[in-house]
């Protein structure tokens, strides 16, 4: 069932003499599906509601991934398909209408409702875009109804956010022709990080900055030929394409992790907006220095340590770059569910030569490699962490990298600390 | 379709995983998309298991549909059989694979594997986790138990029993098994096989050697026990030994069937619980209003303990598993309450709000509800969370279980002496009741949801009455406010003054 191929070195389009080898695998994948993104997206978009159309499994996944974050009534729910719906005793579209009615009556403050497709809804070919159109024309005055797929047969973990944001792009109003350059920051960031970035852009003199997603979806930013956008997350390929289709241009940059990544990311915007180089350096220097100082705390512990990433969020490549370039860690294997070559074009050449990059997954074989490599730290999902610890391998939960603020200068130290803590713990324990 | 936010039970294949994970020498190949692998974390994180659940997922994708999903499944079965060399292999489909109808049973059979294959049919759109666990265990027992085995002649040997139902991710199953095994040993009875927990397929083969089946968790072991009763003629004991009274009844029942003297056990292993309950500090427990919700077995057992062994008043009782609705209705009738049989946590929340209990005994779901309302709560049943797997021995069953229950239920309540002191000192300028009592987490007090929210159109309070209300200890203030408002509305009063407050108090006095 698995095809294992060693591809010819990919063309990174850069001066690196020996670009990394990519191992492509097919087999059992141990990753969440795109529904999981709802757990952080519903916190970010405060006037939106996510209605998964799926099975009891989907509801259980959301509940398990949300873990301790149990709120009275979160802004997500599952419309669980039942036997009656499958046997044709009830019409799925009528049922969905009934549930949406019920929901909007209970939560009149919802301004955007996402119908989120799942594996079951897709396998039975329940057309959610049709349902969204129908419901939108019914409730559109008050609540916009959109749809995207978070299904496990179509999306892997963070691709759910990509699908969600891509569904928002057609809703963005057109920017006026001939308007001034606009900067768009794309990707759901914790509010505190978003505010830090907005302050920095302001100091740089770039005032026309908007974010996607906006905290309130009721005010989506405009997009057009004068839009330049920066991806804050590496997994937003579809969203990037949708924005480009609307005339926006992506600014090539490293992703904003660590002092170097963040500087490069900001510089890309500064250059596009004609910010004076001296001014840029002046504005960026304090944060950059703080980041370096904060990172230095973990440097001693992480330097020379070998690290393996199992595929999870597509954050793996930029994070491995940060850890190797700024903390002198040694990436052994960098696994990613999907390697977006275009978005990674700047990142890949910065990985040390000989780094094994793997795309896709064959879980048992990959674990065999981890056992053979015995890295000092393995970044993996929650299902694998304790079993690997029990085998004497230190681990870091990958999901924390998605849930905690790790972008930008002020979080660089925290990001390094996330990797240092398991090793420090290992050193202090005497039990 | 059904609208759900939080669910009490996962899908039935998670029940099958609980059985496979509990056992040794079993592997489960699950035809499912990648997202379904989340279920692994239930075992590795919540239960802190040090091994991956023995499950291989096919993780088919959209591009495989209509082409080679069946082939994927067959490859996965073949690879798993080679890599894990199980004594028995389970194959089945999750909700998505059920829709593509790849026929796991037929595909597995065609492979002619060297071990028995148990094909599971778990209808995901009708059934849930507990049913899935019971069905899986029943299928395994039915296929693997050696029907020709009979108990050896009784002369010259101790009686033998099987303990059926303990499972992975069960609420305190690990410790209950230890406790019940010890109890039986004191009675001179040995355990032949505990299953599914820690049992191998080879162990299931020998089930017939036992004289009696003890069904510790009917939700999981009930089906298998019924079959063993019919096919092998093994009698089953269904009294669940949770609480002092139930444990005594259990001992007598086992003793009767096994023809041993029960008094050895009853004398040797008394519980401290009866005296703890009779001692004067516990007087304040009398008539405390308790709301109970969980799986039927644990909820019914909790109701008996609450009523007979702690002197609580039951103001609500229910369960989320409809399969046991009959048992639940009978129990509720006994305590004179309407049974609440639902898997809609919002309905449970409404019922708790309406009952305004002083203690909630429930699942993790009710714990969160109670926390928001600022009501003390103890967990008595699945669904579980990481804190329901304590490091220490902490059973629910047997006499030690009764001790544990006394501590865990009474601990969240204000202790008798402390209640007395709070009342004595509440006017002291140094005493701030907003800090809460020592036993409650500060958070519960920080969000006094139960107290806030005077609904619109409600009778207004005079400032003086509000001040008076603030003198009421915080842990009953919410109730006092609600009662007073209800009373004022009922009486058609236009405002709530001090007189109304005390009229209401007199009205509701028990
Ligand atoms: S993988 Fe598919 S069926 Fe499973 S939880 Fe995700 S969307 Fe639902």
UniProtKB/TrEMBL annotation, chain B:
[4Fe-4S] cluster binds at residue 36. It is an enzyme of class 1 (oxidoreductase). SUPFAM superfamilies: Helical backbone' metal receptor (SSF53807). Its EC number is 1.3.7.7. It comes from Novosphingobium cyanobacteriorum. Substrate binds at residues 416-417. This is Light-independent protochlorophyllide reductase subunit B. It catalyses: chlorophyllide a + oxidized 2[4Fe-4S]-[ferredoxin] + 2 ADP + 2 phosphate = protochlorophyllide a + reduced 2[4Fe-4S]-[ferredoxin] + 2 ATP + 2 H2O. Component of the dark-operative protochlorophyllide reductase (DPOR) that uses Mg-ATP and reduced ferredoxin to reduce ring D of protochlorophyllide (Pchlide) to form chlorophyllide a (Chlide). This reaction is light-independent. The NB-protein (BchN-BchB) is the catalytic component of the complex.
